[in-house]
């Protein structure tokens, strides 16, 4: 194997040099070697992609749909996206110039930040939150400003937002929202979003509103930030969570024409275009009554798992914020086990043979918690609860 010079390595992008691997994946890999372990770590739905969606991808291949699609996505999938957003959330977009189809919401996050940020800008990020946003901000030369929401039931308050904007002295360019939230499962209602939107409207900031779990909202109707602040919101979504299509890697950005055109420029230079068969499948998922019915069935199953897991963990002494969406429970470790969530999660994996993710990985306010995914099967969740119970006894 060739050995690269140390002098070459020392000259790499300094932000990349300072970063380690994705902490969620790293912990998952660390405990995966434990024999007979039950993993409730990743946001990986256990459902198969519905047959009619798979058939759409197969048709695309059989019909030799093998040439470059438009950079912003195939016409069919962009039309399906605007139908989806109008049908579910009452949002109106133009398929020609207000939608960009990306390689998952992951690419969408990066593209939006790369479009909006200059060196020295600041990005407000309520925490605990998915661990990808901060590194993407750093890669674009900006500074993440983390806002701990743990004292407010994991919801950003207007007072917190206003103070953060004032403290930034004009450097805050972006607010990132993720709801329903990964890792807490907490979401925002219309009243809370309206209060935040009123403050943002007074500024030139842009909201990157990652609503990838919007279809998995349980006890209320999901309201998009794009409904309340369309002129300053880049809306992110996709089919990974709503239709168990994580491996198809189709996400999208929706927003004002002049902003989305610039996002599309970054997208073109990053990936050219998404895969044609995957876009054909996404068009079927988002643009048909059958696709909507698929999500409803999955949501009912997730809600049943949530209700069971929530009550069992409460009985075992965990404190849990109300998980109104997504497929995660963010559980506070009982006091007698201390606040070292990493040690608790590692011990639970090695001795209890159940893998969860330490809460501190998700930033300020996550200390002393663990994230538990109920995207696993019902039988696995029940077996895991038995093991956790035995471990804690």
TrEMBL record:
<comment type="similarity">
    <text>Belongs to the class-I pyridoxal-phosphate-dependent aminotransferase family.</text>
</comment>
<dbReference type="InterPro" id="IPR015424">
    <property type="entry name" value="PyrdxlP-dep_Trfase"/>
</dbReference>
<keyword id="KW-0032">Aminotransferase</keyword>
<dbReference type="InterPro" id="IPR004839">
    <property type="entry name" value="Aminotransferase_I/II_large"/>
</dbReference>
<dbReference type="InterPro" id="IPR015421">
    <property type="entry name" value="PyrdxlP-dep_Trfase_major"/>
</dbReference>
<keyword id="KW-0808">Transferase</keyword>
<dbReference type="InterPro" id="IPR050596">
    <property type="entry name" value="AspAT/PAT-like"/>
</dbReference>
<dbReference type="GO" id="GO:0006520">
    <property type="term" value="P:amino acid metabolic process"/>
</dbReference>
<dbReference type="Pfam" id="PF00155">
    <property type="entry name" value="Aminotran_1_2"/>
</dbReference>
<dbReference type="InterPro" id="IPR015422">
    <property type="entry name" value="PyrdxlP-dep_Trfase_small"/>
</dbReference>
<keyword id="KW-0663">Pyridoxal phosphate</keyword>
<protein>
    <recommendedName>
        <fullName>Aminotransferase</fullName>
        <ecNumber>2.6.1.-</ecNumber>
    </recommendedName>
</protein>
<dbReference type="GO" id="GO:0008483">
    <property type="term" value="F:transaminase activity"/>
</dbReference>
<dbReference type="InterPro" id="IPR004838">
    <property type="entry name" value="NHTrfase_class1_PyrdxlP-BS"/>
</dbReference>
<feature type="domain" description="Aminotransferase class I/classII large">
    <location>
        <begin position="36"/>
        <end position="388"/>
    </location>
</feature>
<dbReference type="GO" id="GO:0030170">
    <property type="term" value="F:pyridoxal phosphate binding"/>
</dbReference>
């Amino acid at each position: 194997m060739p050995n690269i010079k140390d002098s070459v390595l020392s000259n790499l992008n300094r932000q990349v040099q300072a970063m380690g691997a994705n902490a969620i994946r790293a912990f998952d890999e660390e405990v995966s070697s434990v024999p007979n372990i039950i993993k409730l770590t990743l946001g990986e739905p256990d459902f198969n992609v519905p047959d009619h969606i798979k058939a759409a991808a197969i048709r695309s291949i059989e019909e030799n749909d093998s040439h470059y699609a438009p950079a912003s996505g195939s016409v069919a999938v962009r039309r399906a996206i605007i139908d989806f957003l109008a049908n579910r959330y009452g949002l109106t977009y133009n398929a020609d110039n207000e939608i960009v189809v990306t390689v998952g919401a992951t690419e969408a996050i990066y593209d939006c930040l790369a479009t909006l940020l200059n060196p020295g800008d600041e990005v407000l990020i309520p925490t605990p939150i998915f661990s990808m946003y901060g590194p993407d901000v750093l890669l674009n030369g900006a500074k993440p400003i983390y806002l701990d929401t743990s004292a407010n039931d994991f919801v950003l308050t207007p007072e917190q937002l206003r103070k953060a904007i004032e403290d930034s002295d004009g450097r805050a360019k972006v607010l990132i929202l993720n709801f329903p939230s990964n890792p807490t499962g907490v979401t925002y209602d219309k009243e809370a979003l309206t209060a935040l939107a009123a403050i943002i409207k007074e500024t030139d900031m842009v909201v990157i509103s990652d609503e990838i779990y919007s279809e998995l909202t349980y006890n209320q109707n999901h309201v998009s930030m794009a409904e309340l602040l369309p002129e300053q919101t880049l809306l992110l979504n996709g089919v990974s969570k709503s239709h168990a299509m994580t491996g198809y890697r189709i996400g999208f950005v929706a927003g004002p024409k002049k902003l989305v055109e610039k996002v599309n420029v970054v997208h073109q230079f990053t990936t050219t275009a998404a895969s044609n068969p995957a876009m054909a499948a996404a068009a079927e998922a988002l643009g048909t009554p059958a696709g909507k019915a698929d999500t409803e069935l999955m949501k009912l199953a997730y809600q049943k798992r949530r209700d069971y897991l929530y009550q069992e963990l409460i009985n075992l002494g965990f404190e849990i914020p109300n998980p109104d969406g997504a497929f995660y429970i963010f559980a506070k470790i009982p006091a007698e086990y201390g606040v070292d969530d990493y040690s608790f999660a590692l011990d639970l994996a090695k001795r209890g043979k159940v893998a969860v993710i330490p809460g501190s990985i998700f930033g300020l306010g996550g200390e002393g918690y663990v994230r538990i995914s109920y995207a696993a099967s019902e039988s696995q969740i029940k077996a895991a609860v038995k093991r956790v119970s035995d471990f804690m006894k």
